[in-house]
Design a protein that fits this description.
It is built from 9 helices and 7 strands. With 260 residues, it is an alpha/beta fold. Helix 8 links the parallel strand 6 and strand 7.
């Protein structure tokens, strides 16, 4: 997989530092937040650019893997939302009433149904508005995800774009050991979806994949290959850091790595 680290945006790098600072104050879902961060950054940049256009409606981003909300908070903090600088009092999943949070999520497996419902509503109202849903690869173990996959294809929801954070790990172990869904691409294709595979840490490749997805006449899924704990060697591909808190020495070591 190509290494997109050299093309990280300054915002995503700052957000990585912020996620680490959160984990110094309280336990957070570090591994997933660091794997999904570049995906969320690409989606937020896309939404911001479109919203800035005259008359554009904001396209919702549904973070279905809500335990990785620390990446979203950190990216919003880097964009000037001061509320997200201090993790004290922040909920552990996306919650209504917080700036930049489009949809509240919690239990895994529900986000795609929400996103498909939004996309269907826009279609019926003849509103040209995309809907983005971010799933985890472990979340694909939930049967409700595949019900929504079938519904979206049946209703021809071509403005629905899913990005799967394929980091290969979940709380119980390697994703393929818990419930093997490999290969993923043919499964989505068999339900009538367009499938695009990409390096989930390369912002240029992610942007191109999202461009392609929105040109397709059917719902699209971007399978974004990522690394759990991305950017910090002692966290990468480690279940130890699915949830964790950093002591002073660990924080210092992690921040040094980000500067290198």
């Amino acid at each position: 997989m190509p290494d997109g680290s050299a093309r990280q945006t300054s915002i995503s790098l700052g957000a990585r530092r912020t996620v680490l600072s959160y984990a110094h104050e309280r336990p957070v879902h570090l591994g997933s937040s660091l794997s999904v961060l570049d995906i969320l950054d690409a989606l937020l940049r896309r939404v911001e650019a479109r919203t800035a256009a005259a008359g554009a409606l904001r396209s919702p981003v549904v973070l279905s893997k809500g335990h990785a909300v620390w990446a979203l908070y950190a990216l919003l903090a880097e964009r000037g939302h001061g509320r997200y600088r201090d993790p004290v009092g922040l909920p552990g999943h996306p919650t209504d009433g917080f700036p930049g949070v489009d949809v509240a999520t919690g239990a895994l497996g529900h986000g795609l149904s929400i996103g498909a419902g939004l996309a269907e509503g826009y279609r019926l109202d003849r509103v040209e508005r995309s809907v983005y849903v971010v799933l985890g690869d472990g979340e694909l173990n939930e049967g409700s995800v595949w019900e929504a996959v079938m519904f979206a294809a049946h209703r021809h929801l071509d403005r629905l774009v899913v990005v799967v954070d394929v980091n290969g790990l979940q709380q119980e172990g390697p994703t393929d050991d818990v419930l093997c869904l490999t290969p993923l691409a043919p499964k989505w294709q068999s339900f009538g979806w367009s499938v695009i595979e990409v390096d989930g840490h390369d912002p240029v490749a992610l942007g191109a994949a999202l461009d392609q997805a929105e040109r397709e006449p059917v719902p699209s899924v971007v399978l974004a290959r990522t690394v759990k704990g991305r950017g910090v060697t002692f966290m990468e591909n480690s279940l130890r850091w699915h949830v964790g808190r950093l002591d002073d020495d660990q924080l210092a070591e992690a921040l040094r790595e980000l500067e290198d």
